[in-house]
Amino acid sequence: MYTLNSRIRDIYAHPLGHDMLDRILYAAGVPRTLLKNPIVGSMRLSWLETIASGKLDTTFFQSFIDLLNMHPEKPGRGDGPVKHAWWKEAVFYQIYPRSFCDSDGDGIGDLKGILSKLDYLKSLGVDALWLSPVYDSPNDDNGYDIRDYEKIMAEFGTMEDFEELLAGVHERGMRLIMDLVVNHTSDEHPWFQEGLHDPTSKYRGYYFFRNPDQTNNWTSFFSGPAWNTYEEQNVSALHLFSKKQMDFNWDNPDVRDDVIGMVNRWLDRGVDGFRMDVINYISKVPGLPEGSEGIAELIGFKGIEHYFYGPKLHEYLHEIHERAFAPHNAFSVGECPGVGLMTGRLVTGEERKELDMIFSFDHLDVPGHVRYDDYAFDLRYYRDYITDWMENYGNNCWMSLFYNNHDNPRMSSKVRPDGSYIRRVQKLLLVMQMTLKGTPFLFQGDEMGLANYSFTSMDEITDVEAHGYHKELLEKGKTPEEAFSIILSGTREHARVPLPWNRESMKESVLQMTPAERAEKHITAFLDQKESEEIRTACRRLIALRKEYSTLIYGDFHRLMGRGYEESGYGFAYERRSDEAVFRVECNLGEKTIPAYRSKENGRWHLVYGTLRNRKAEELGPFEARIWKKEQ
Ligand code: NOJ
What SS3 state is found at 185? Predict the structure, then answer.
């Protein structure tokens, strides 16, 4: 049993203790190597207050300890050989349907638009598509608020269009995974409506309904309280996201039966798996206790310690796996914010039969920063973060590799907010993504070199999160200019602008409610055909290389140190090794020229890819990367 008197070292040895301590230090902007210091290790848990500047309160420490005691599991051994699987070898491509490709000129992307680009995606070397939600939805959160799980959103097409798309994907030897949004439904879902209007209905127990004076202090990810009150019915309901995204009560077995039934029907239709939206939030601590003020100050959201790794998370993931995924041999990748390396090993350990992979997010901002901060991302943090995962995730687990998705500004713009060297950074990211150990997930437009968009006012932004946060900032006393500049740094809208397929299609395909000038600006800002073609070519070549050598998929990872390539330097060099081949990747993560890692004494190396042409072998220019293959 862990208690408030337990020592940091013992807590750090617990998988959840490890990840929570890492997370707290990350939020406080303190390097987590501190936790390996023996003096720190011998301190009691409450010592954390010092690094969190006194923000952590008793409620936090108590719930921390309770969580540890609730989760006695240890990850399985990860030292056997890696098992082969199609999803480890595949390159995935995420499509955000609303802005991917519009086939009928109504300004909204659609399924037929996606169908028309399948040959293009195939020619890039993409093996599998992840479709962000395409189900019927009132679009408060662009489809992440589902009204009917078994119907296609009318703006995107029909079920026949979907079937044609799925067949088209399969005909080309590709696979398709859907988005599974089952932490919550839309408030317009008939189950919620029935539960709201009829207290005796079985659906009342599908959600968290409470008397308005018996809610808790949790906050929503989209600003404000996590409870919406329905005056007429005199009842409140829990929503971790928008007021129209109502949280399911997963402790109710009928919810699980209905969700799993729906998953099985989609798998029966032939889809190859699911990306599971905020799936680590599905189990909430019974009674929904008050959230810690300290954690809220540190992490930004109140109550999160009671659901980011809830007591029944493993049980529910295992249940979905056994009752739906396993019988269909389907693939799962869980979106798991806050799940770290060790808890990640618990949810993805192959012997545990829960998830195949996760998306975790602590590599997208450097410690002490959050998405809405205006700062330049230092790639050395990514290097050290990813090395830790590469070295410690274990062969029984498998990583996803991504920099972009529909919820984040583009990584290349975060690294180079002023836009300088941005093409080089994009190619460097692609080199790492295709040569590190894990499954690459490209996000639409990565292959075109899309960067952040220069929005000029809130009118050009549709995202519910950005509007909620903007309002909150104004309420906190920011001027409209200050508030807009914060939104501009972190808004998800950067990733949601329509893809610039060509000048004509851009004019047509503007997100709904967006001024027409936006399309024009987007064209001039990003449709430099030559540059975009250069990134596409790099993408194609790197994917092809990854497919040619299984070493780049299954080979061991070894970070190379020395020669200025250790923590403080900007160099990142690593090898991927197997019996088939040895590859050496050398990267310059900064804007100053550095010596190349390559050395003659280690045998003969052949350059298979370089991001810059005609460069001196002995040095790496700003953000340059090269891949060498050892001659056997
Ligand atoms: C994560 C999704 O990626 C995001 O777009 C959405 O707003 C929330 N989950 C809520 O579904």
Answer: strand
